[in-house]
Fold:
Amino acid sequence: MIAVTRLNGTTIFVNALLIEVIEETPDTLLTLTTGKKFMVQERATDVISSMQTYLQAIGVNAATIKSIQSEGP
Structure:
């Protein structure tokens, strides 16, 4: 989960794996795969950075990258 701030100042935690689209309109709009939408104060680049940190923490990135050793001759 990543923490984001709604426009009214409250913090909510969003499942980063469910974020499908991030739009700046100029506020940042998160659209989840469920169709639910959230307007947040953070910029899109900050949300993406939080998502990347979260995915690294749970090992998703490592699970999708092939090791150079496993690609041997």
Q: What stands out?
A: The mean pLDDT is 89. Strands lie at 2-5, 11-14, 19-24, 28-32, 37-40.
